[in-house]
Amino acid sequence: MIFSRASFLFWRVALAVPLMAWLPVQAQTPSARDVVSAKTHISSDPAARGTAVELAVILKIQDGYHINAREKSEEYLIAPDLRAETPGGFKAGDVAYPKGELHTFTFSKKPLNVYQGTVTFRMPIMVLSSTPAGPQKINLKLRYQACSTEICLPPTTQDLQAIVNVSGR
After folding, report:
1. pTM for the whole thing?
2. Which residues lie below 8 Å from residue 93, measured CB to CB, with a gap of 6+?
3. Which of these, 141, 85, 157, 97, lies nearest to 123 by C-alpha position?
């Protein structure tokens, strides 16, 4: 019996597809943005001119992942970094990063200082007396690297925004 090229290809594909169903599916590597979600909160709403408010960035890190703490265990590790681009009428203070926790991982001989679960970065923001009334936007850039016990995802920067409602009084 002689097979045509078309029928040969048909049977080859027809037999290969069911066999492929038996092969393990490789998990797709997530993006760092899928692993770490970040939300902003302001301590006072509305905020009065001439007062300080606290801007909090709350990170939720997916189970099985961590990010390095600000106080790095090793020089080569990438620490998180939060920066504010404050518009006129605001003055940002230094970010308060929490203390990390030491965890041992199979890929490191010594424990690493990391954040897991939920972590909050805090930044004081001074609302100057010259700040216009109404909702004001503060743009933020959050840089970090998320890792699991098997892989480290590429470092990423998330653009965030906080809204400060400035009272007119």
Report:
1. 0.79
2. 52, 123, 124, 125, 126
3. 97
**What's the rounded Cα separation, in Å, for the pair 30 and 9?**
35
Residue 123's DSSP bridge partners are 55
- The CATH code of domain 32-166 reads 2.60.40.1250
For the stretch 82-135, pLDDT in tens is 999 999 899 999 999 999 999 988 878 889 999 999 999 999 999 999 999 999
Q: Which residue has the tokens 């960035």?
A: 57
Between the alpha carbon of residue 100 and those of residues 15, 111, 119, 120, 146, the distances in Å are: 54, 11, 9, 11, 14
Question: Which residues are CB-neighbours of 71 under 8 A, at least 6 positions away?
Answer: 79, 97, 99, 100, 113
Nearest-angstrom CA–CA distance, 27 and 34: 14
